[in-house]
Design a protein that fits this description.
312 residues; mainly alpha; Serine Threonine Protein Phosphatase 5, Tetratricopeptide repeat
Length: 312
């Protein structure tokens, strides 16, 4: 069957109220060569109305982002996700649970109830549905909630770690970073390094930062200021405030920098980025360097004036 014949067949099925066909046509309108976001929203509404969970998931995303000519509406997004989640849709279950964790309006739970026990219980229930349905981000969140005892009792018998491992196998880098942290807290330096390396390879900035500290202190690995600075730089580039602060320290002292070169201006810029993200100690260093720069400029001008007098 050719492409056009396939589209015509989908349209025929959609005309007869086939939810799967309506969702497929919605996907084509949303992501295809001739994008029509408004048409996609219309098709998703129809598909969700016919009980298609994929259409409900996509409709929720469009409501969440305000796509398709509609205003951003968190309540309507969560309503769409709830309907899809109740049909067992793994991603919709995760999205609904994540909205609850963030404190967005979900049913009877309001923003004012972010972190409320009832909201956490429901969030954990939906994370379980998503995780058991094979959705890796839900596996990660469920693992973290089990570790913290959020929404119920803390997991026992390594069940939290098992979900985190499954999440990592599904491509969630943060799961590997958490497993590395757990190994570190248990005194297993080698295990921590193994997980952090894996997570950093998938782009987790927190894992890269922890590798930087491991090399700086020689914890489970040969001490190397150059390696430390390299990992800090990798995490800092991804916007990690603590790594930006650590890399700024490297530039300010020259530790781990090629040739041991001190670059206070680069340090200042990194401290400023970290301070902008709420890093309190970085804000102090920004103020200190700013004062130093003013003093250095004043001293330079004084030296220049003194030199001018000497030439008269």
């Amino acid at each position: 069957m050719g492409w056009m014949a396939g589209v015509l067949a989908l349209r025929a099925r959609a005309a007869n109220g086939d939810g799967e066909a309506l969702n497929a046509l919605g996907d084509n309108a949303r992501w295809g060569g001739r994008r029509d976001i408004g048409e996609a929203a219309r098709l998703y509404v129809k598909g969700a109305g016919k009980g298609n969970a994929d259409a409900g998931r996509s409709l929720g995303w469009m409501r969440w982002r305000g796509e398709g000519g509609t205003l951003q509406d968190w309540r309507e997004a969560c309503r769409a996700w709830r309907e899809a989640a109740e049909k067992g849709h793994p991603e919709a279950s995760y999205l609904l649970g994540d909205a609850l964790l963030q404190g967005f309006p979900v049913g009877e739970h309001s923003k004012a109830q972010a972190g409320h026990d009832d909201a956490l219980v429901e969030a954990r229930r939906w994370m379980e549905v998503g995780a058991e349905g094979g959705y890796p981000p839900a596996m990660h969140n469920l693992g973290v909630m089990l570790l913290r005892g959020e929404g119920g009792e803390a997991g026992s018998g390594g069940v939290a770690e098992q979900w985190l491992e499954k999440g990592f196998e599904g491509g969630v880098a943060a799961s590997g970073a958490v497993l590395g942290d757990l190994a570190h807290d248990a005194g297993d330096a080698a295990g921590a390094l193994e997980w952090w390396v894996k997570a950093a390879a998938l782009g987790d900035a927190g894992a890269a930062m922890m590798l930087g500290y491991a090399y700086r202190t020689g914890a489970g690995v040969g001490e190397s200021e150059v390696e430390a600075a390299t990992w800090f730089a990798r995490a800092a580039k991804a916007g990690h405030p603590e790594a930006q602060f650590a890399l700024a320290e490297c530039y300010e002292s020259g530790s781990g920098i090629r040739g041991g070169a001190v670059d206070e201006h680069e340090a200042y810029l990194l401290y400023a980025k970290a301070a902008g993200a709420g890093h309190a100690e970085a804000a102090v260093r920004v103020a200190q360097l700013r004062t130093k720069f003013k003093f250095d400029r004043a001293r330079q001008k004084a030296d220049e004036r003194e030199g001018a007098r000497g030439r008269r």
